[in-house]
Amino acid sequence: MKNLKILIEEEKLQKRIEELAEQINQDYIGKEIILICILKGSIFFTVDLAKKLKNDIKIEFMQVSSYGQETISSGKIDLKLEITGDVQGKDVIIVEDIIDTGETLDYLNQYIKQKKPSTLKICTLLDKPERRRKKIDVDYIGFTIPDKFVIGYGLDYDEYYRNLRYIGYIET
Q1: What's this model's pTM, rounded to 2 decimal places?
Q2: Half-sphere exposure of residue 27, counting CA atoms within 13 Å on the CB side?
Q3: Tens digits of per-residue pLDDT, 40-80?
Q4: Cα gap 158→69, rounded to integer Å
Q5: Options 48, 91, 97, 100, the catalytic residue
Q6: Which of 21, 71, 148, 158 lies in disulfide reach of 52, CB 3.0 to 4.6 Å?
Q7: Residue among 14, 5, 28 at smallest CA distance from 143
Q8: What is the pLDDT of residues 105-152, one digit of tens each?
Q9: Alpha carbons 126 and 144: distance in angstroms, whole number
């Protein structure tokens, strides 16, 4: 892809994920955690984070979409895959690739709260606060980034570029 620039290199990504895992390990000493991986974008992040956690964990998957084939969120949330396990009375962490407008995370947060977890926290690799429309309390943030359309490390453009080992952006 032309005009692709590196925003966060692979080594920096992995170091920050290790720091997030340590923070989660401290917050959940001796507890089982259910990680809810938001597909498709957070799969790489969830796997790398889970490998660094010392807790007993279960991983659930949800898939929602608000982008379609666009580079900006449509604001319309489409639930494509629901969790299959019971989270009632459990410690749950939503693992997201990026928080942009906050509308998807607001939807997910409300949706999972209805299932009555004991605790519910949010962990995101990337936070783009400049575009926020909904107030979201995020417990674990990997990187705060500028308002750029990012790809790589799970993030895509029209389903391509997820396999990049770094976070890049498209220079316009």
Answers
A1: 0.90
A2: 18
A3: 999 999 999 999 999 999 999 999 876 555 545 555 677 77
A4: 5
A5: 100
A6: 21
A7: 14
A8: 998 999 999 999 999 999 999 999 988 888 889 999 999 999 999 999
A9: 6
